Amino acid sequence: MTSVHRVAVLAVDGVYPFELGIPSRVFGATEGHYEVLTCTVDGRPVRTNSDFSITTEHGPETLSTADTVVIPPFSTTAVTPEVPQAVVEALRSVAPGTRLVSICTGAFVLAAAGLLDGRSATTHWVVADLFRSWFPKVALDPNVLFIDDGDVLTSAGAASGLDVCLHIIRKDHGSEVANHVARMCVVPPWRDGGQAQYIRHPVPEATTSGTATARQWALENLHEPMALTDLAEHSHMSLRTFVRRFTEEVGTSPGRWLIQQRIERARHLLETTDLPVDEIAGRVGFAGGTSLREHLHAAIGVSPLAYRRTFRGAGSTP
After folding, report:
1. Which residues contact 279 (CB under 8 A, 6 or more apart)?
2. Buried-most residue among 83, 102, 167, 289 (CB within 10 A)?
3. Rounded to an integer, what distance in angstroms lies between the CA atom of residue 134 and that of residue 112?
4. 209-261 pLDDT per residue, tens
5. Does the keyword Transcription regulation feature in the UniProt annotation (predicted)?
6. What residues contact 244, with CB distance under 8 A and at least 6 apart?
């Protein structure tokens, strides 16, 4: 992407103020790659789910000029199986091929407009059963943070709105830009979209001991072979206790987390260096180029060389 990408954020009645501001905050931190415009279906103020209303500078005409349209969530008391006619009319102005993104209950708007039929999607787990009963044509997965289905992306609760926006930036401009944005917003640079939503998971007890030391050691030594027993030893725990504590603290298993970190490091090297694939594999701890290819393809569906071509084309500088 070489031109400024226009993001239109559509605020509907009952919108959550925090999530409404996520696209502007995250995309706005890319320092010029995106233009974010917030609009309403009729240009008038809308009520939020809090004790105030908001006024935007733009109306529905903004949607027709957008490259990406984001639907933030709104109060569950306003959720219905049908979209208000004004919203339907506004969405009709969105050009074919425009990227559509929903956060939390924003998926109800896309589904009610028929834009998710036959697609994979997610929403907040609390309203998953209701969503499934109203929109049986949608392949709903309520157990993930976000789903990238090409030109339609859906995400779960509040924090996953940050995740999906960072994911979009990473797709458009590579990990360097996404990581910079994450640092500016003081949020984790990457959480796998397939990571489970935090459903009925108890908060681990606050103690001075945890798995953070082991994770830091692993990140500093990704190039070395390491077993779960090595990580457990750095946490001074038995293997069983370590796995349990790690999963409670991170939300995924140690083995999966380690593969994610190696893939992330490999992506960074593919984007920013001319190193051969086999050498990159060694630097991140994979057994060889074949192993890296398999893991990268499983994670994002492309080969290392195809990934490198994509992000060199997006402006990454070695």
Report:
1. none
2. 102
3. 9
4. 688 889 999 999 999 999 999 999 999 999 999 999 998 888 789 999 999 89
5. yes
6. none
Tell me if residue 53 falls in helix, strand or coil: strand
> Which superfamily does 206-318 belong to?
Homeodomain-like (1.10.10.60)
| CA-to-CA dists, residue 43 to 63, 140, 260, angstroms | 12, 32, 43
What's the confidence (pLDDT) of residue 188? 73
Mean pLDDT computed over 8-23: 96
Tell me how far apart the alpha carbons of residues 197 and 179 are, in angstroms, rounded to a whole number. Answer: 22
pLDDT average, residue stretch 158-168: 92
In what order do the strands lie in the sheet containing 34-40? 34-40, 5-11, 68-71, 99-103, 152-155, 146-148
Residues of each domain in the chain carrying CATH 1.10.10.60: 206-318
Q: Is the pTM of this model over 0.90?
A: no
CB–CB of 58/28 below 8 Å? no
Short-list 54, 122, 117, 58, CA closest to 90: 58
Write the Ramachandran bin of 247: left for phi over 0, alpha for psi from -120 to 50, otherwise beta: alpha
pLDDT in tens, 86-126: 898 899 999 999 999 999 999 999 999 999 999 999 999 99
Instruction: Give ranges for CATH 3.40.50.880 in the chain.
Output: 5-185
Tokens of 194: 């397939």
* H-type alpha helices, 227-285: 228-234, 239-250, 254-272, 277-284
Task: Please report which helix (H) or strand (E) contains residue 22, including its range.
Answer: helix 17-28
Architecture of domain 5-185: 3-Layer(aba) Sandwich (3.40)
Q: Smallest Cα–Cα separation from 72: which of 103, 109, 110?
A: 103
Give dist(CA 118, CA 138) in Å, integer: 5
Question: Rounded CA gap, 169 and 189, in Å?
Answer: 11
Hey, what are 176's tokens?
A: 């360097």
